[in-house]
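Duplicate of earlier report; SUN1 protein input re-posted below.
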Amino acid sequence: PDMYPGNCWAFKGSEGYLVIRLSMKIYPTAFTVEHIPKALLPSGNITSAPRNFSVYGLDDEYQEEGTLLGQYVYDQDGEPLQMFPVMV
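Output:
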């Protein structure tokens, strides 16, 4: 709801997984990732921001392999809110 440090959903370690279950099947055209801007952090360091990430489409949350929709890189020197088009 806001951009204050600590109001986020952080992953422990250097890797993580997230599954979002929707109420109906969709065909996404893009994804967005937002991270707090460097200017709002006392250290000016956002190494906790995602860097390399992949997005997969699944038929259900128990599916082990999905359809790769794209592999992306979050630009830590770019805008806090970044959009990534589906590559498939």
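The mean pLDDT is 84.

Merging into the original ticket.
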